[in-house]
């Protein structure tokens, strides 16, 4: 791209050196330099990109974007006030605003983002669309999964993914939108058409401080739909969550509601929770419809309603949506049953908030025949206030294994001490090493028991210190169950 055209994306430019004629590549990683690269110095939590500016120039970067004057050999320096902000502006310009050419669906909320996103992506593909998905599980492009570092990636990676979806002729891209991503500007330049809110429950208060600030962060997605009512856009809100009424005030676009317990435009009644799936009656403006799906639990009824409402809002017929819903598989790591021929039932789930833990246990309670064993852990160096509440919710299970999630730099004993203060009965054990905790849960199981391994879900690693080590609840559980019951 012509450099002058690219720099027209920002209002203020202070150059030290001659502007190169072309920019062929853009990066925030000095190891990812190509010919005629722009290197943008981002100040991160542990690393400052300014420290790698000369290294980037040595590797071929011709334009360095920085927040302070720098003496860089063989490269021009562009000084801006906030490199994180201009990153999104430059990235959107460089990739020619790709979100304008796709139908963009953004999903925010404490719990359910991954499930709703996965349901929507699967439904769209069943409906014959080319579809992309970005979120916790990774970047899924027409069924091919690529790993991703965060729920909401940095602004450059986000624009690169959307551009790739555009280039692959996708009609839709569904994105999980975290509160961190909204506050930190990672969605800069993304033009959303549909915004979905799942719920707001206790989480991330180490970052946001209060539930009010957390809720306001989520609401940014809806205010960012803008004021141009000539373009069809819509907000999909959970009528069962009181924050929906606050969020509705932030957008001028049409609002569609869904719910189970409160009156909504898309409402589920006569819910029947089974070991093999779920059925319910959908009531909406088009009438009443019988719904059958393989997804488990009442929370997945809510997630399905959100997806149904979103697709209906953009013109799909209810009958087509429900036919596709009956065919899709559960989302990976979200109340996913481990398929193995043993006399116990085992599920892996990503539940790492009090609300999600409660919903995971409720999802299996109706078909319980013996005990529910619940393994729960929480991450180190993160929100400590939710730990006792998580354990309290887990106490509904007959036997609880308290462990860690990603302990990082916090000692096992510190994490476990916070958790166990919330336990309401004595049928629990504390095991800091998560692998040993998973093994213990399986060893305790008797025929007819249900085990839920909560917290890691689809993840195949555990963070100890600053290092990711291989870890899979699913694989460990399978190996131990095979030993015990075969």
From TrEMBL:
Cofactor dependence: Mg(2+)
This protein's pathway: Cell wall biogenesis; peptidoglycan biosynthesis
Binding-site residues for UDP-N-acetyl-alpha-D-muramoyl-L-alanyl-D-glutamate, renumbered to this chain: 30, 150-152, 178, 186
Residue positions binding ATP: 109-115
Single GO term (MF): ATP binding
Modified sites of kind N6-carboxylysine: 218
Residue ranges annotated for the Mur ligase N-terminal catalytic domain, each copy included: 23-95
Keyword Ligase recorded: yes
Transmembrane segments: none
EC numbers on record: 6.3.2.-
GO biological process: one example: cell wall organization
Protein's recorded name: UDP-N-acetylmuramyl-tripeptide synthetase
Organism: Planococcus versutus
